[in-house]
Amino acid sequence: MVTSWVNSAERIGSDLHLELTGPGGRRAALIRALREAVRSGRLAPGTRLPPYRSLAADLGVARNTVADAYAELVAEGWLTARQGSGTRVAERAEPLRPAALVPRKAPPRARGPRHDLTQGTPDASSFPRTAWLASYRRALQQAPNEVFGPGDPAGRIELREALTEYLARARGVRTEPGRIVICSGFAHALRLLFGGGVLRGPLAVEAYGLGFHREVLAAAGVRTVPLPLDEHGARVDRLRRERAVLLTPAHQFPTGGPLHAARRAAVIDWARARGALVLEDDYDGEFRYDRKPVGAVQGLDPEHVVHIGSVSKSLSPAVRLGWMVLPERYVDAVLAAKGDREAWASVLDQLSLADFVVSGAYDRHVRRMRQRYRGRRDRLVAALAEHASHVEATGIAAGLHAVLRLPPGTEASAVKAAAWQGIALDGLAAFRHPDTDVPAGDGLVVGYATPSEHAYGPALEALCRALPPP
Length: 470
What we know:
The chain is an alpha/beta fold. The chain is built from 14 helices and 19 strands. A seven-stranded mixed sheet has the order 6-14-13-12-11-7-8, with helices on both faces. Strands 15-16-19-18 form a four-stranded antiparallel sheet, with helices on one face. Strands 1-2 form a two-stranded antiparallel sheet. It is elongated.
């Protein structure tokens, strides 16, 4: 015998599902079900149970059956009954529950570094909460009903239209909404392009770059071929039989500096001649300080460049929104790889970002943060000039990090010294492609955007103490 009961919230304040099973008739089954509900914590101490008549009607049993079950559980101490307050679960200092359900104490959390100077993240305390909330509210109030159904794999048209205008104005990207596919960031774009079978390796990459991206590519079975770097950026003249190349042309990561204009033209000529593709990682294109903004390579040839961007540096990595601006011939293949349902980027977040861009709040936030990060960069340079004049900061005309050039053979010891000072940062060698034979020298990659304003000064003091002597 199985009888299910789902009570209404009006009766005891929350829904409860009971199954009356086992031998002994309905009275015995009800007693077992209520005991188990209390023991497991589904009925918390003090919870008021429905009156006899209501529960009997829900279960389809006689009123006396419920009354007898309540009486027995009161006698056993599971329930209490008082005139005027009904029948309730007995109060206990510790609710009864199976031993397997008793939560274990969480292990103590490892103590993090005192100073976070890792690259790649903006100042979390600077997220524009008020403006973002205003955009979210407007987006939610104006959203059509279809927003709350299955999503479009390409992403919401409102966001793709907003990005079309913004990217053309701010980055020189030439596109239309139908050639933009929304994703959750650069790594997700790589997984769609290579893991989804849209592109195949080998893939040429810069000799220094983010190791996580190489791991994503390796997991998709893609072999990466490193291109040497010099003061003009990647040596695109070394491209051979690869069918695609991944570049950070606006601000080489992590060494800094834009790809020289002649090399921009050369890589486009190479792509046209071989029917190849340039993947453009525009990871911090908005942040320029001492030079004019460098436009996107995509503007030179939209049919041979995939422009990939996100808000992880400009807003926050927690927003999980990015985009691919695709050559027309790849749009259908990328959408097929993505699937029929939008499973990665919240539609409400997409609408919020669209409003954030269209309202001008995004531009205002970027301008404010550009000024703040430029001030932090200047403080870093001034601290080095005062306390470690033999250490040069490079790649500082743009972006959210700098490379501190160290005397030969001192990088490993400097990273250890930084750890002793409670600083989290990376050495330049951590970004080196394992197959490259052209080292970029010793250095520390210092993210000056990550700390909050009040923490930045102490972080700089600790950094200067960790640097090697001249």
